[in-house]
Amino acid sequence: MTREARGPKEGDFITIKSYKHDGSLHRTWRDTMVLKTSENALIGVNDHTLVTEDDGRRWVTREPAIVYFHKHYWFNIVAMIRDNGVSYYCNLASPYVLDKEALKYIDYDLDVKVFPDGEKRLLDVDEYEDFSQRWHYGEETDRILKANVLTLVDWINHHKGPFSQAYVDLWYQRYQELLRRSTDQ
């Protein structure tokens, strides 16, 4: 079995590309370290990762962030590890696909931000409405996204998966072990 057929393994670096519904490239993250892959999910970490916007503007992430992608849920989750606690940025997005080039998904504009104190905010509702009309998301996509907002909020409220401090601690510790291993070689 070739590496491409298996996909990336722990410690590999991948590129992440988000697109808009019309197929245009939205944002690219270079060198996300893979922490775990399974049949349905990929967990990685961005730490001082180069990000390129669709207009060519480039910036580097400021803090380590555990990223979670799933092949069945219409969202992905970024757990940003900051001095004042963990903040979450959740993108309502298509389930990911992974090919030789990158992990790819369609960003559907709506975002949920969760602050260290647990406060939740639904962001970019106006942007979602504008793009939904411009690119004709359709009733089915709208229904799926709204259902996935409810799933996401349920995960947040019940500290499920990436919203558990134990989850963040486990994957951040694994990332630090992989870093030490790579510098010891």
UniProtKB/TrEMBL annotation:
> Could you tell me which Pfam families the record lists for this protein?
DUF402 (PF04167)
Query: Which Gene3D superfamilies does the entry mention?
Result: FomD-like (2.40.380.10)
Q: Is this entry keyworded Magnesium?
A: yes
The alphabetical list of record keywords is: Hydrolase, Magnesium, Metal-binding
DUF402 domain span = 22-160
Top-rank lineage group of the source organism: Bacteria
What name is this protein filed under?
A: DUF402 domain-containing protein
Q: Which organism is this protein's natural source?
A: Levilactobacillus brevis ATCC 14869 = DSM 20054
